[in-house]
Amino acid sequence: MAVYDFINCEEPWVVIVPQGDQLLERQLVALEEQGGPVFHLSAEEMVTPEGVFAAFARTLYFPDYFGHNWDAMVDCLDDLHGSWHGGRGIAVVIGDADLLLDAGHLRLFVSVLCQAAARANSEVDSDGEPWDRPAIAQHFAFVSRTAPTEDFASRLTGGDLKVAVVGPYVTASLDE
Description:
The protein is α/β, with parallel strands linked by helices. It has helices at about 20-35, 50-60, 70-80, 105-120, 150-155; strands spanning about 15-20, 40, 90-95, 140-145, 160-165, 170-175. The longest helix has 15 residues, at about 105-120. The protein is globular.
């Protein structure tokens, strides 16, 4: 079994991978072959929360009413179930993730992505009631050029995140 699976609605929602990771490349190709979109962003423009909001809004076609805050980002990522992507899973790949290691918002950013993915990947809402849409695989990969795995793990541990180091990977999901 793979450490992470971008094709199915399974945890972990966020993974930090080394640059050139072949597992990531294979999964992205498989997702695209199924018609699922893969979005590529650069961490260079996400060193501030405002940069995160702008990059995601532009690249993932958030609606004009997007509030440019963390709660609104969760909502907009959950709303990606529209017809524009055909109801297929999506992946967002953030390159140069090393640039975010010293960003004060890294843990919150990853938590927000986990919250959004947990909602998107679920067939029921927080009350256990069925959604009016199917679950859709939504995953996020941070690609690290040189930073050691432990550097990411230490910055993500705590709060509402369940963080694991598995070989060269750091995985994150909500600690429920």
